[in-house]
Amino acid sequence: MNGRVTLLGAGPGDPELLTLIGKRRLAEADVVLYDRLVDPSLLAFTNSQVKLVDVGKLPQHHKVKQTRINQLLVNYARVGKKVVRLKAGDPYVFGRGGEEAQVLEQEGVDFEVIPGITSAIAGLAAVGIPITHRDFASSFHVITGHHKKNGQKQLDWENIAQQEGTVVFLMGMAQLPKICTALIKHGKDKKTPVAIIQWATQWRQKMVIGDLTNINELVKEHQLSSPALIVVGEVVTLSKQLNIHRPLQGLHVLLPYSKQHRLFNQLVDRGATADFYQRAVKVPQEVNISAVEYAKLIVIDSVAAAHRLITILTANGSDLRTLAGKTIVALNHVVAHHLRTIGLIADGTLPDVNLPADYVEVGGEKPQTSAGTFLSLYQKVSRCDSLPFELGEFNAVIFPSMDSLADFAQLLTPKQEHQLMTIKAFVMGPKISQVANQLTFQKVIECQPSIDETVKRIEEEFGRD
Ligand code: SAH
Predict the structure, then answer these.
(1) Out of 3.40.640.10, 3.40.50.1980, 3.40.50.10090, 3.40.462.20, which CATH number does the structure's domain 282-381 have?
(2) What is the pTM of this model?
(3) Model confidence band, residue 61 (pLDDT cutoffs 50, 70, 90)
(4) Substitution site in 16, 39, 173, 229 for ligand 1 pocket (most atoms within 8 Å of beta carbon)
(5) Taking CB atoms and a 6 Å cutoff, what residues make up the pocket around ligand 1?
(6) How many Cα neighbours within 13 Å face the side chain of 242?
(7) Over the stretch 92-130, which tens digit does the pLDDT of each residue have?
């Protein structure tokens, strides 16, 4: 069995800046080894059987040693796994991607490299700094501020200071005073503009602008630290003109992951960062549905139950016509809305319909009504043990359905439950609001069950003009 390692560039942070092939490789992977700088919501693109390994390294504190990472890559590939080594930015821009590739080549392991958008360029654009511009810089230079203890070439400061182009330092924050001093000493104008950009393209993005003489002070004053880019050059002045401010900039929202992305798009297009958590998987149950054929009224609890019902009907050689003449009741308006998209117009929603004594309810694990015959068409299985997020880093979480809230609540650790106290929950409907109020959210905000309304409420709560 031949495995393969993909050194995959995750981009600078914003999950949408992953490449299309990168997304496909994540979906195909058996094992994903990921770094500290990689946004955890990218992991939602993986399949349900994937093994996730956090090899994130903290500065000065190697959580998993590089030799161990290399060994893991080789070992997994040798037992036939499709391995993705998910790396921040581009795999071959610092971050030791080249060294990992060399090990794989030496060990005879199949590997490929998929580029990512590097923070060294995209991080500047995120704050309105074009890395080149005909009036200011006709070259750019990307330099590491962090040196291997022995053996690595020393920087040629003379040369760097003489460049007219934009100079970008990565991993340079610990050396910032030395970098400024060296540049001035070797002839760079003291007044050359400098920008420090921390967590570029992410909700926590921060920037300060100064020059070679005062940037250290400004960094201390505004408390910027690693990971950050140090940008030296006249192009920095363009940020004032080209940095685009959007109403929900800096807002960090958590969403249930679903294929229906309109909510995600609307938030992100207004400048918010939306991360998503993985929904539980619905595992089909084998059931005898003959009761459906005889029932006069059918309550449908969820879209998944409707889909599953149709699958079972067709597997038995019949189809939607089996439901002809029966009264169809949807659990709520959201379910009714979705039923329309699969060609079923509900005759009513609960609790507005009087249920007769003999009806059939189709759903997931538990009945939502108290009488009638309940058919469980699927069981939910969580894809992970806990939410892979520091919830304290979020401003808001959105629950479009009761199911999405149940999936969320099930994954909460005690520490995460505590973190809810600083988060506002936006719930799309009164029933969800009742349940959300039992958790410890700072505030539960009930919205109409419509995406546009919910986004409007979020803008009212957080937006700035
Ligand atoms: N391969 C990565 C760089 C890895 S080295 C790339 O192509 O972007 C790690 C350094 O990259 C950090 O110390 C920091 O200087 C920079 N970096 C990576 N992502 C960043 C981000 N979103 N914002 C600011 N700096 C970032």
Answers:
(1) 3.40.50.10090
(2) 0.83
(3) low
(4) 229
(5) 12-13, 37, 87-90, 93-95, 118-120, 123, 170-171, 197-202, 226-229
(6) 14
(7) 999 899 999 999 999 999 999 999 999 999 999 999 999
